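Task card 7
Instruction: Convert sequence to structure tokens.
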Amino acid sequence: MNAINSKKKSGTDWQFLTAESDEGIDYSDIPKLGAEFWKKAELRLPQKKESLTLRLDHDVVAWFRSAGRGYQTKMNAVLRSYMRSAKHA
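Output:
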């Protein structure tokens, strides 16, 4: 978390959550994970990002920025999608 994000007030009702017991949680829509799941489970850590300078057309950047927060993540997703499709071509 960076300094900008840490100054925002959380929308979470921490007093309610602290007072709430686990018995009050509704798990009805969550399947139980049995031994078979854990046999196949594997730890997947996030990939390291590389910082670089990239020259893009102004209108392309403006279009992604107009979608709001996370536009760089969306740009990465578009590039990843292209990369995967090019591998299979």
